């Protein structure tokens, strides 16, 4: 079980590693675009990172990598959500207000609302993240899933309906069957996806995390207790 | 009061035996829990495999999904391992479901008996499980096989004695 600080830095490291992998695969495509830049700045503001300060975790190279991700990328969102939760929980633990540094976004305190929202998102994610209550505070138990860009892209596709099939992936991404199956096998292995073999036509792969969100469950204290993996 | 279905009941893959071992474990645990709650709610003590397949728990018509016979048997095996189920025959066509263990039933019955100052009274099994006096009690309608086991549990504790009478069995509480 990791402390919140360890959890945060581990996630950041994984996040960064995946970004670097992605960039090395798409070297030719790296270019600057104003749309990416704006989104990137906003994202940095949200997580309290100042891209222009040196030695703060993100160097300029990483920033270019972040730009390449673009908005709507599942892993990008996942990383943000994790960080958001960690920040919110840090607030709960320390009893201090955590300030989001503003650059493009106005400074925000992490409030109780943020905390509740973050925990709801966590509940929906169900990628091995457990929130365990310890008295009146919470510990985040993190078992990060190993995801590469192929996995991420497929998860993104599945986001629309909460499930996806082999043909749908092939049609969208033009991948070979083997590549698709490889990704789906991994998602099953990580517990992110469940198999539905009674769907008409071909098997479907459902994401319970998204299903929970679609059926909008509310977090109750008892349920929070049950969320240990 | 109608039965409250858990979210998994509406999740189509819940009815497919999951290939991933860890996921399957979670799935089976959820099925065991659902099966027991359902039986508890409807006061089912005996199940026949044939009827069970058509039971709403395992056959969710609204989403057109059902748990296969193979999977049902796997769930039942899990229940058996946990002590919540007993097969009545070798062919596994009928089983007893114990959503409450005999000791727990015994405790409930004894509580009622002592609360009503009926210690040292003799009851017939029929009176206990089906009499007017016990109509509002949870153990009302308890099937005989379970009733006997519950009373035997109390007997082991020295709180009751099962006696044979002219026209059946009875019990005296201490």
UniProtKB/TrEMBL annotation, chain A:
Pfam families attached to this UniProt entry: EAP30 (PF04157)
GO cellular component: ESCRT II complex
Superkingdom of origin: Eukaryota
Protein name (record): Vacuolar-sorting protein SNF8
Family: Belongs to the SNF8 family.
GO biological process terms, semicolon-separated: protein transport to vacuole involved in ubiquitin-dependent protein catabolic process via the multivesicular body sorting pathway
Residues that span the membrane, as ranges: none
InterPro entries referenced in this protein's UniProt entry, alphabetically: ESCRT-2_cplx_Snf8, Snf8/Vps36, WH-like_DNA-bd_sf, WH_DNA-bd_sf
Automatic annotation (TrEMBL), chain B:
Domain of life: Eukaryota
Keywords, sorted A to Z: Cytoplasm, Protein transport, Transport
Location relative to the cell: Cytoplasm
Gene Ontology cellular-component terms listed: ESCRT II complex
Key word Transport present: yes
Name of a matching Pfam family: ESCRT-II
GO terms assigned for molecular function: protein homodimerization activity; structural molecule activity
Keyword Cytoplasm part of the UniProt annotation: yes
A Gene Ontology biological process term: macroautophagy
Family per similarity comment: Belongs to the VPS25 family.
Name of the molecule in the record: Vacuolar protein-sorting-associated protein 25
Source organism per UniProt: Oncorhynchus tshawytscha
Lineage, top ranks: Eukaryota, Metazoa, Chordata, Craniata, Vertebrata
